[in-house]
Amino acid sequence: MSDLFASDESLLAMAERLNKMAGDLLAETAKFMARIEAETQGSGAVALATATERKAHPIKELLTAFDLKHVEKFKAPANIQGGKDSQIMKRLLTTYGRERVLELIDLFFDCDDTFVHKAGFTVGVFQSKIASLIAQTAAPRVAGMTAKTESNRANAATASAMIKRAYDDGHPRR
């Protein structure tokens, strides 16, 4: 029986040693992470964080979306000119907002415009096509408004005729 208790005691001692080692390891890891945090603050170094924890800069996000669409369409990265294309995206972001620019990028890569195919799918060409892309998305709304306007005109003509008839009925001609 004493052998049984001896092995239980040694297992208990081993478990305690392992527990202490795990605690020491956690303490060392915490010290290491604190040192990295202190070294990276304010130095411009990239802090340890996942992509989801860091918020992408909106201009970089738009350029990345543009590049991804280019890769999807042509199996090659876009020829993005850092400063020039960043300025273009900054102006578009300020004017139209993030969501609208992302929609317009999608439309741009789906367009069948001869000019775009000859000039290339670049940020500069994208900027030059913004007005036509916006008009393209507005066309269904304009067409709907035109149909509604025609309907309103027809209704107004009918109402006018009814009013005229009622007036004529109440006021016989002399």
Written account of the structure:
By secondary structure, this protein is mostly helical. The protein folds into 2 domains: 1-54; 58-139, no CATH class. 79% of the residues lie in helices and 0% in strands. It contains 6 helices and no strands. It has helices at 2-40, 58-74, 82-96, 98-110, 114-119, 123-170. The longest helix has 48 residues, at 123-170. The radius of gyration is 35 Å and the shape is elongated. The chain starts with a helix and ends with a helix. Mean pLDDT is 77; it is low at 42-53.
Can I get a quick summary?
By secondary structure, the protein is mainly α. Helices cover 79% and strands 0% of the residues.
Q: What are the key terms here?
A:
174 residues; mainly alpha; 79% helix; 0% strand
List the helices and strands and how they pair.
Elements: H1 2-40, H2 58-74, H3 82-96, H4 98-110, H5 114-119, H6 123-170
| Largest sheet report | none
Q: Enumerate how many helices there are, as a single number.
A: 6
End-to-end CA span = 133 Å
Mean pLDDT: 77
Helix share, percent? over 70%
Number of strands: 0
Q: Measured on Cα atoms, how large is the radius of gyration?
A: 35 Å
Judged by helices, strands and strand pairing, the structural class is: mainly alpha
Q: How big a fraction of the residues is strand?
A: under 5%
What pattern of helices and strands is seen along the backbone?
A: HHHHHH
Shape: elongated
Number of domains: 2
Q: Return residue spans where pLDDT drops below 50 for at least 5 consecutive residues.
A: 42-53
